[in-house]
Amino acid sequence: MANERKFIRENAKRSLIKRFLVKEIEGAGFGGMSIQRTPIGTRVNILVERPGMVIGKSGAKIRELTESIRVKFNVDNPQIEIQEAGSSASLNAQIMAEKLAEALERGWHFRRAGHSTVRRIMQSGAKGCQVIISGKLTGERHRTEKFTEGHVKYCGETAKQMMDIGFAVAKLKPGVLGVKVRIMRPDARMPDDIKIIQPTAAAAPVTPAPAPEVPAPVVETPAAAETAPAEPQPADVEEKPPIELDMDVEKKTPITLITKIPGIGPSIVKKLEAAKISSLEELMSMDLDDLLAIEGIGQKTAENLVKHLKRLIEEGDVNGA
Fold it and tell me: Model-level pTM greater than 0.85?
């Protein structure tokens, strides 16, 4: 029983140290930590995206963190080592959760921030990811929005071993938004992945080749030769034209066509392009609240766009056809 209490006490101390570090080095991109006991003390490895913010000027910040961990958590001779995340930052769930929370605090619309985070994670090579944003997103009532792409496991030993989970909080004027990011790493191997090894040529059994069959001679009578139908020559064979497959290609109508709408000028096009909207189809998928969230788009302009977008896309399809 004494050993069990010791394990519980040590794990509880690790959780408290992790919570303390997340709060103290906020903004540096905390990506996780590990604690190892050595003969000369306790080594604390911290993974961050921006090491300079943790080290501080002349190492003042890291010395302050070391002293705080020694005094508050009674750690024997702590030694903090800083490790830079580098190119693997986009595959770290905790770093991406904090970056998403910072984007929401800077005023990004939650849908734009969620899709951007998912796209960045998948472009880094992840097998799957899920972003969950919950809180007062568009009104006074709490709601939850999920952005999922690829393979995501939710429970079982597979989820524990292959899914990396990060959590962060965005503090906004309407309230607090919770951000949760789940990433399936690129090297994750599913239990149902089966690799079949083909046998080599040396190991394959050698079977004797069958003896060639000699056809029996056929004797044709003159009458049979006259009545037999003539075989078609190669020139008489009708060649069939190749079958053409109709491939569905995703069409994108350029965003510049909205200038055909009365009251919409090039300035509105520039504001939409600044919001990473490049086609009328992307604009069509947004509702009135999403349009109003774009900087420089007013109520009248948003209603005008929603009213005429469908007609513009149909005209673009007719012209393209």
Answer: no
